Amino acid sequence: MLKVIEHPLITHKLTQLRRRETGTKDFRHLLNEISGLMAYEISGDLPLNQVTIETPVGTCTTHEIVKDIVLIPILRAGLGMVDGITNLIPTAKVGHIGMYRNEKTLAPIAYYSKVPKNLSSAVVMVLDPMLATGGSASAAISGLKEEGATIIKLVCVVGAPEGVKKIESDHPDLDIYLAAVDERLNDKGYIVPGLGDAGDRLFGTK
After folding, report:
1. Per residue in 87-123, is it b (16+ CB within 10 Å) or e — as a string?
2. What is the CATH number of the domain that holds 193?
3. Nearest to 141 by CA among 2, 132, 151
4. Is the overall model pTM greater than 0.70, yes or no?
5. How many Å apart are CA 14 and CA 45, to the nearest integer?
6. Average of per-residue pLDDT across 85-90
């Protein structure tokens, strides 16, 4: 299920993130802020356990999150979303999946994977600022399912309709969270209007 998170703060910060003149320092800061704001919505259905605790003045029956949270950024641009979410969920474990697109075929190519052992009992959030063709995200999700993950959320900032359709077709059992759905992909597989190359803008490599 596609969930577009609409909030004035996210919309404002996404506008600044999109601007051509936004430099590396501000791009990195804005991406973290947007990710943190999105995390509030993403975590809205986390399961809770009832617990009884002692406060300084009495006994309180309340609730705690029962599931482990695992963040899986798709390298390299997904790294820019980790701190914004761990600021809100500091106990989250972080794995990494390395994917890149063949520039001619646009097919995803995996080159690295290191994930926690507890995927089968955790809520797994796959992080990538851009959902373009959906190929890399779909391949990463398939790999995580093979590792035992059953509860997976795909968290991206900007998505193209083509990428959304790809994920909904390949993985109809998971939720997709976006801050915006853009118009389309161009002939090079980039989102229009999009953000440009999120990895290059995040790390200042172009």
Report:
1. ebbeebbbbbbbbeeeeeeeebeeeebebbeebeebb
2. 3.40.50.2020
3. 151
4. yes
5. 24
6. 95
